[in-house]
Design a protein that fits this description.
By secondary structure, the protein is an alpha/beta fold. The protein has helices at about 55-65, 80-85, 85-95, 105-115, 180-195, 200-215, 235-245, 260-275, 290-300, 315-330, 350-360, 375-395, and strands at about 5, 10, 15, 20-25, 25, 30-35, 35-40, 45, 75, 100, 120-125, 130, 135-140, 150-155, 160, 220, 250-255, 280-285, 300-310, 315, 335-340, 360-365, 370.
Amino acid sequence: MVNVVLKEGINWVGAVDWNIRDFHGYTTNRGTTYNAYLIQDEKTALIDTVKCSFADTLIENVEELIGFDKIDYIIINHVEMDHSGSIPQIAKLAKNAKIFASERGKDALIEHYGHDFEKVETVKTGDELKLGKRTLRFIETPMLHWPDSMFTYMVEDKILFSNDAFGEHFASSERFDDEVDQERLWEEVTTYYANILMLLAPLITRKIQEVVQMGIPIEIIAPDHGVIWRKDPSKIINAYLQWSAGTAKPRAIIVFDTMWGSTDAMARAIEEGIASQGVEARLFKLRNRENTDIVTEILEAKAVIVGSPTLNNQMFPTLGGFLTYITGLKPKGKLWGFFGSYGWGGGAVKGMVEMAKKAGFEVYEPGIEAKYVPDQEDLKKCFDFGQQIAQKIKV
């Protein structure tokens, strides 16, 4: 292990997963990391573990610094298995260690790994654990993004161990934000927020405000995925606040699929109508792009226009999957429009509109439909539809 030091006596002991490309439906083109941290004081604490398939890496990294019999405490900030998967093995090695989690974290550990974890000690916001010269303070963050989630704050060194918040799926040889390519880093930061945390925007805003009201100074943010933020942690905090507030650009994202080219032609006519008003539009054909990438584009757009051919009186299957994905993330403050083509019977546009309304989306109506191959009159309607959407979202 390359010795990675956050502060004297505080080391990164996690693992880099270069090869993962799918994270429960999220496309991870640049891999990820599973971060764990070892703090050595009068008492020694391990904060979080790693995915079970990387347990040997964690064990090796820890043993280069200290024997497992010397670990006094294990802190579980989050029980999702990419972070807790190796805890049964680690708990057996660190047999003298007390394990701490939130109350829901304890329940989740038992539900995941059995009754051996009934002895886990629970903590709540404001509780502290003295290590010697250093103090750990706990902050519960329920539903950010699991019910059990919490932060651990190192008081004296001003380090926030933030579990899944402020992270990104980004494998690299470097561990700190100021060591990596910034363009690539921020692509992954944005993608991570859009695809995992966008749903939680109101909770994120409240939790950040709560931490600010606590008067907690933060010099380093150490998440469980990706880089450790040491150069300017406020940059990632401010980005989260802006995204959570629904800050967006006057831009439209057009998402569609097509069977014989009719919906494609409609999408291009709508794009031309939007562009004619000086508003940027971006087109994405679903079978050519990942949902992960499209949702990232939607994060900072003011309008989303979705098109589908009709198949068996319903929307095309790729559109069904996309709308299931995006309605679950519940992006706020966006205008949605729908269009599509059909043969002897429609149904796609109606189904998409119903799905969007059920999710609470603001829908611009009526949608646009064309039978078989759109003629010039149909394409003019699409062009006008694009102009109308553009006027609605222009600043």
